[in-house]
């Protein structure tokens, strides 16, 4: 190849030979060393993306981790093929974080990289080729050889081709030179390159040719020249009305959006003629994909006396502690405190990350923060397009977004001076990623990230996790408490509604107790609002046959299929399988098929029948899949277009509506009796958080909890909001049974498509681990609650490790070695062992 010949020629001079270690998106626990072409010696820096050859066939894009002069001993280093970035797109501290996550969460840096980067910067092993949007055979000045023509003609017939498709089409393996030539001729784009895949959004604008209009006389002369072309004169007149060039000459440089100039009276052809004749000039301007207004100077945050005191306590703790827990009851005004601290950090020149557990929560809080911080703020979550996320990434990189509000993936952004991280609702399970690797917890990773930057972390919650509160009680974290609601608001009154008694008395209405139905009707009469919580989406958890008890099961997972009425489908919420609803039982032929249980969709339908005068809507994963669906629902609820909002745990997090005076919790029993050592903690958290949506104004709030056992001690702990009582009970039990925070948990998930092989492999691995680590530390294997997902049978091995006196990194390395040794044996071919550290 011509480029390699150039490298050989350059090698004859006396310039220094450099090498670079490249992080590649492959699940291999090491970096790969490549030789740096002499032409790139002065420009290549850590954090830049480079194109390299990996193996015999693959062309990959990687991140440079280090540039050095050490010759690799194990292999002859290849030359890297191309440098993509003039400036780094990944910061040195990010590379440190990637490595820490790989070590702690028992995965590889390449797996971290795949999750960390937005798709617009994503590193892909499969290049995708497409025609350049501006390419045309009719206008190009370039010539093409036979293979180039064949590829371009194929791309005219298809939107894109993969690297493998092009190999097959052209009958050749090495495509680098071909792609390089066509890129130089601006004929194709390669998806995996940011300069190709990410393209700034632009608008076309027009302006008067600079210098054409100097004074009134020159303007009159221009109109006189257009006397015979009245349509063109109309275009010019409209432009001058919008852009008065004589009064404000500077405005002509920015011009006017072409779309504003063209209307029903003015045709695009008139504008094109003026451009062609040199009177108007057309140009492109890059614009952000999402609009954030300037901050409102009139918005001011007024803290109450208690909030001022809490703020000062937080700052005092930050003098000698890196982390502070803010334990504030629901509605106590934690967000106002956050805003005050963010403003101070930004004024001091620091970057701030404000983490939220759910996209739904960002929707409402972002609206409040926009008014205070305006264009200083970037928003980052998965509902944004690839290009929008790249723009936020670049905005953090260049300093235009010193404040970022986002969900767990925001911890991967390229911060360089992170002074404060706020983790709101720190107890939320949504901060934990379960698939793919790294299976990280954003709260715990945020503590490490802040420490790397020399910054501080503020954890906020009305119901802190037991582990976090324990750290505060032990003095490792600072502890600040807010006991009063903001303003005139009072905590809602909680009461229990006995479903067992109502069933016995036959007063239940569609599984709603009389207390809840009457309460909802009263709310609607008073023109107030209510939220009904049921943490199960769909119409019904399952359907069954009344004659033979047949229940439709997922063919890939060990769960029943959930019935969704609106689309008339049976769906698996684990693998996404969809089946039609049968009209007759496939087992016995009976038509007596009924739904069992209640999901949010069925509650929505039931409430519309029970209270026809009410406007009832639903907020769950099914109704909020589209990009702006959260915002539309929240806007309608805020504008009082919705009387009753039915939802899953999306409705429990941070929603603040003054009109909500009643919250109904449909089924508390299922949460309480879930087989998990955290079930009581999570039930307390979820019920308290949902209850906190009521009574957030001067109107009193009411919460009705439906249960079949009103004597449960946990429910009475919830009724009196006794978090410390819950904490004391839970911490005593965990100390007794050696659960976190007194131990570290690591779960090894053994999986395979054959059940017997899965069980055999899990038992073999557990025995090997016990021989070295002991019986007390290795629990299982046991089948999880859902024993088959996506066609793979699962077995869990749980390790309980001491927090002191044990070399945990060495144990993790041993676990990986034993797992790799097991799956490499012929008897266990195809078995996977997936580690999950801190399986919350």
TrEMBL record:
Chemical reaction(s) catalysed: Couples ATP hydrolysis with the unwinding of duplex DNA by translocating in the 3'-5' direction; ATP + H2O = ADP + phosphate + H(+)
GO cellular component: primosome complex
Enzyme category, top tier: isomerase
Binding-site positions, Zn(2+) 1: 545, 548, 585, 588
Superkingdom: Bacteria
GO biological process: DNA recombination; DNA replication initiation; DNA replication, synthesis of primer; double-strand break repair
This protein's UniProt keywords: ATP-binding, DNA replication, DNA-binding, Helicase, Hydrolase, Isomerase, Metal-binding, Nucleotide-binding, Primosome, Zinc
Residue ranges constituting the Helicase ATP-binding domain according to the UniProt record: 315-482
Summary of subunit composition and partner proteins: Component of the replication restart primosome.
Source species of the chain: Cesiribacter andamanensis AMV16
Name of the protein this chain belongs to: Replication restart protein PriA
InterPro entries per record: DEAD/DEAH_box_helicase_dom, Helicase_ATP-bd, Helicase_C-like, P-loop_NTPase, PriA, PriA_3primeBD, PriA_3primeBD_sf, PriA_C
Positions bound to Zn(2+) 2: 554, 557, 572, 575
Protein role: Initiates the restart of stalled replication forks, which reloads the replicative helicase on sites other than the origin of replication. Recognizes and binds to abandoned replication forks and remodels them to uncover a helicase loading site. Promotes assembly of the primosome at these replication forks.
UniProt record similarity statement: Belongs to the helicase family. PriA subfamily.
Cofactor note: Binds 2 zinc ions per subunit.
PROSITE patterns with a match to the protein in the record: HELICASE_ATP_BIND_1, HELICASE_CTER
GO MF, one annotated term: ATP binding
Cofactor entry: Zn(2+)
EC number: 5.6.2.4
């Amino acid at each position: 190849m011509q480029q390699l010949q150039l490298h050989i020629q350059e090698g004859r001079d006396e310039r220094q030979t450099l090498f670079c270690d490249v992080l590649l998106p492959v699940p291999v626990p090491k970096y790969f060393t490549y030789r740096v072409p002499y032409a790139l010696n002065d420009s290549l820096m850590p954090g830049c993306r480079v194109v390299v050859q990996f193996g015999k066939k693959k062309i990959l894009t990687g991140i440079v981790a280090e540039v050095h002069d050490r010759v690799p001993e194990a292999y002859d280093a290849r030359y890297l093929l191309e440098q993509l970035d003039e400036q780094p797109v990944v910061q040195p501290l990010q590379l440190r974080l990637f490595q820490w996550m790989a070590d702690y969460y028992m995965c590889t840096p390449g797996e971290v990289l795949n999750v960390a980067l937005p798709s617009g910067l994503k590193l892909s092993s499969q290049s995708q080729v497409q025609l350049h949007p501006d390419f045309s055979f009719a206008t190009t000045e370039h010539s093409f050889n036979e293979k180039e023509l064949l590829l371009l003609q194929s791309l005219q017939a298809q939107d894109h081709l993969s690297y493998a498709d092009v190999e097959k089409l052209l009958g050749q393996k090495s495509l680098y030179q071909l792609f390089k030539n066509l890129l130089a001729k601006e004929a194709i784009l390669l998806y995996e390159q940011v300069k190709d895949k990410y393209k700034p959004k632009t608008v076309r604008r027009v302006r008067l040719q600079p210098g054409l209009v100097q004074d009134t006389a020159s303007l009159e002369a221009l109109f006189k020249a257009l006397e015979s072309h009245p349509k063109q004169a109309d275009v010019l007149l409209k432009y001058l009305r919008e852009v008065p060039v004589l009064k404000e000459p500077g405005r002509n440089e920015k011009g006017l959006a072409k779309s504003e100039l063209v209307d029903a009276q003015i045709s695009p052809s008139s504008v094109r003629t003026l451009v062609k004749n040199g009177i108007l000039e057309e140009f492109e301007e890059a614009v952000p994909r999402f609009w954030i207004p300037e901050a409102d100077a009139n918005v001011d945050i007024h803290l109450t006396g208690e909030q001022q005191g809490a703020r000062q306590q937080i700052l005092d703790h930050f003098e000698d502690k890196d982390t502070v827990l803010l334990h504030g009851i629901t509605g106590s005004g934690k967000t106002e405190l956050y805003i005050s601290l963010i403003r101070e950090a930004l004024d001091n020149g620091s970057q701030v990350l404000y983490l939220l557990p759910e996209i739904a929560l960002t929707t409402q809080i972002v609206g409040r923060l926009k008014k205070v911080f305006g264009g200083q703020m970037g928003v980052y979550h998965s509902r944004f397009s690839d290009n929008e996320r790249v723009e936020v990434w670049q905005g953090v990189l260049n300093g235009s977004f010193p404040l970022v509000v986002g969900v767990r993936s925001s911890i991967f952004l390229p911060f360089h001076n992170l002074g404060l991280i706020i983790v709101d609702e720190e107890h939320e399970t949504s901060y934990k990623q379960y698939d793919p690797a790294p299976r990280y917890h954003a709260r715990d990773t945020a503590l490490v990230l802040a420490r790397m930057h020399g910054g501080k972390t503020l954890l906020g919650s009305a119901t802190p996790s037991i582990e976090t509160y324990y750290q505060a009680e032990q003095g490792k974290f600072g502890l600040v408490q807010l006991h009063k609601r903001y303003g005139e608001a009072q905590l809602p009154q909680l009461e229990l509604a006995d479903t067992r008694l109502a069933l016995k008395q036959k007063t239940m209405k569609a599984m709603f107790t009389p207390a809840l139905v009457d309460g909802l009707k009263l709310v609607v009469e008073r023109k107030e609002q209510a939220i009904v919580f049921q943490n199960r989406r769909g119409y019904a958890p399952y359907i069954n046959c009344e004659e033979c008890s047949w229940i439709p099961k997922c063919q890939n997972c060990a769960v029943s299929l959930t019935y969704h009425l609106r689309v008339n489908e049976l769906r698996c919420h684990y693998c996404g399988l969809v089946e039609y609803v049968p009209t007759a039982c496939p087992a016995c032929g009976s038509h007596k098929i009924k739904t069992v249980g209640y999901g949010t969709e069925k509650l929505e339908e039931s409430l519309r029948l029970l209270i026809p005068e009410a406007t009832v809507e639903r907020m769950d994963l099914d109704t909020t899949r589209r990009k702006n669906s959260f915002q539309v629902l929240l806007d309608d609820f805020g504008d009082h277009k919705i009387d009753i909002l039915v939802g899953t745990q999306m409705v429990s997090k941070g929603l603040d509506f003054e009109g909500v005076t009643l919250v109904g919790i449909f089924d508390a029993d299922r949460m309480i009796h879930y087989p998990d050592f955290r079930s009581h903690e999570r039930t307390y958290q979820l019920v308290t958080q949902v209850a906190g949506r009521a009574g957030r104004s001067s109107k009193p709030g009411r919460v009705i909890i439906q249960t079949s056992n009103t004597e449960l001690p946990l429910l009475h702990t919830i009724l009196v909001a006794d978090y410390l009582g819950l904490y004391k009970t839970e911490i005593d039990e965990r100390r007794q049974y050696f659960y976190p925070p007194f131990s570290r948990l690591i779960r090894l998930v053994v999986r395979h498509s054959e059940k017997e092989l899965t069980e055999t492999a899990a038992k073999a691995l557990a025995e090997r681990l016990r021989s070295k680590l002991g019986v007390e530390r290795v629990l299982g294997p046991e089948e999880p609650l859902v024993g088959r997902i996506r066609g793979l049978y699962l077995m869990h091995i749980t390790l309980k490790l001491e927090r002191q006196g044990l070399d945990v990194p060495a144990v993790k390395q041993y676990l990986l070695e034993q797992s790799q040794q097991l799956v490499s044996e012929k008897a266990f071919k195809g078995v996977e062992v997936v580690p999950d550290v801190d399986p919350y």
